[in-house]
Amino acid sequence: MLEKVITAVREVAQQVIMPRYLQVDRQIKSDGSFFTEADVAAQQALLEKLQAIHPAAAMGEEMTEQEQEAQWIKGQSGLWSIDPIDGTSNFLNGLPYFAISVAFMEQGKSVLGVIYNPVTDEMFYATKSGGAFLNGAALPLKKHVPALSSAMANVDLKRLDRKFAARVAAYPPFASQRNFGACALEWCYTAAGYFDLYLHGGQKPWDYGAGSLILAEAGGHMCGFENDDYWAGSPWTRSVIAALDPGLFAQWRDWVRENRKG
């Protein structure tokens, strides 16, 4: 099934998304986030291709909340979780950091994940207990483990509460911070070893479905703000504390939890 999903994702990127790159106007959803005609067309194309590969419940970011919740409940034995363009703002503005993200989930947990950046031709993928890969190369690609004080962190500051975000920005325990605006690729770049640390205040299933599996299969570690078990708590607002190295992860987790209290 993995190879068929990879093929489907690549075809949708080539046939539906890239011909619309820099050619579509933004529209605004009820929650204030952006979407485009490309998001809607790509989601429909993915749904059709994935259902042909394996008929199951399917949930996409561009569905209504009611449709998403219904598909989540329906899909406990098998669910396609889709973000047709993760990083829509980047896509709209011509920044080459966006991706298609597809996960297949069972009992609320991911067993297959594919994430593709069509601009850079980076195809990340993983299956449960099958390892994680980038264009055929096993992840991670970079294995150097820095001290926490010299680490590179990907931190989404806008989804942290203001007091904690200010503390992370003003008194970080790491050396440098980035955020490029596409959750799926943030997971993948952490799995590859490009980022040493990852922090996000709240994600939905299409944000973490594929990426969390890719990081886990690369040997990474993750938890939530409150739960050591990453999969505990609400699936609709899942926070992320993550790192590849177990020792670095433990230091990062402890720093985040301690500093969120103050």
Please provide a written account of the structure.
With 262 residues, this protein is of the alpha+beta class. Helix content is 37%, strand content 26%. The model has no long low-confidence stretch (mean pLDDT 94). It has a seven-stranded mixed sheet with strand order 3-4-5-6-7-8-9, sandwiched between helices. It has a five-stranded mixed sheet with strand order 11-10-12-14-13, sandwiched between helices. Strand 6 and strand 7 (122-127) form a beta hairpin.
> How much is the average pLDDT?
94
Name the structural class: alpha+beta
- Tell me the Rg in angstroms: 17 Å
Inertia-based shape: globular
Strand content: 25-35%
Instruction: Count the beta strands.
Output: 14
Sequence of secondary-structure elements? HEEHEHEHEEEEEEHEHEHEEH
Largest sheet: 7 strands, mixed
